[in-house]
Write a structure and sequence with these properties.
With about 260 residues, this protein is α/β, with parallel strands linked by helices. It has ten helices and seven strands. The strands form two sheets. Strands 3-2-5-4 form a four-stranded antiparallel β-sheet. α2 runs antiparallel to α3 and α3 runs antiparallel to α4. The radius of gyration is 19 Å and the shape is globular. The protein starts with a strand and ends with a helix.
Length: about 260
């Protein structure tokens, strides 16, 4: 049996696969809940996070409904990072939408989720963004195909000061002025996303060595929350798979 260990937002797609959805059904559902209804980043007063979290919660509940992880067609788990205990939390039972809501709680962007024990849960990628080791503990002896979506990112930096001093009022005003030139600055969301994505890159490299096959789809040009580019991401992943998988044919035949 083959198991997939994927990076970052892939737990949502993995949940759909485990639930028996075809890629067409997944695409249509993702578009309905994550694109058609507008951005999932519903800005609020930044006391705990930049976003309120209502839209991402509604999207996940709309996508997965009352599905329980233990009732999925295929075995499934996702991770969150427990900030209270300093350890990973493995979600393999209970409401799928709630597990995923904790798993995608990007620190600073979305509010953390409170566990039943009162712990604070955030994005699983903070502590482990390629859970090959967890996969091995669940399914000892199976073939593991790891999909690592981490890649380089082009962030504008010309507008940053070498002294580390910056007033946000100018860039903010230019964003609301259609006639003003855009500042060559990384957005706060870009910085938050990229920071958590690269936090344990070295650990991910080590974990790659424990997988039987490792795939690196060429999706670095797409933003993590660029759901409106869903079709382009699917096409890029498909083209990469067509090119790359034949190189692993002998390995897969031997292990499957």
């Amino acid at each position: 049996m083959t198991w997939w260990a994927a990076h970052r937002s892939a737990p949502i797609v993995g949940g759909g696969i485990a639930g028996g959805l075809s890629w067409e059904e997944q695409r249509d559902s993702l578009w309905e809940h994550l694109v058609a209804k507008g951005s999932v980043v519903d800005l609020t007063a930044p006391a705990v996070s930049l976003a309120r979290g209502q839209r991402i919660t509604d999207a996940l509940r709309g996508f997965f409904g009352n599905t329980q992880i233990e009732n999925l067609w295929l075995p499934y788990f996702c991770l969150s990072s427990n900030l209270s205990r300093g350890e990973m939390t493995v979600h393999d039972r209970g409401p799928l939408w709630k597990a995923l809501r904790a798993s995608v709680s990007i620190p600073g962007l979305f509010p953390p989720v409170r566990s039943e024990e009162g712990d604070i849960l955030v994005d699983g990628a903070v502590m482990n963004n390629l859970p090959v080791d967890v996969m091995e503990s669940f399914f000892d002896g199976g073939t593991i195909i790891a999909v690592n979506l981490k890649g380089s990112a082009t962030l504008p930096s010309l507008g940053l000061s070498e002294t580390g001093v910056l007033s946000g009022w100018g860039p903010l005003a230019r964003r609301f002025n259609p006639l003003a030139e855009s500042a060559e600055l990384p957005g706060i969301v870009d910085v938050l996303l990229r920071s958590t994505e690269t936090g344990n890159a070295l650990a991910a490299k080590r974990l790659e060595r424990e997988a039987d096959v490792v795939l690196h789809p060429e999706v670095a040009e797409f933003g993590l929350l660029a759901f409106e580019e869903l079709d382009s991401v699917i096409e890029a992943g498909y083209r990469y798979a067509i090119k790359e998988l034949p190189q692993h044919e002998d390995t897969l035949k031997r292990l499957l």
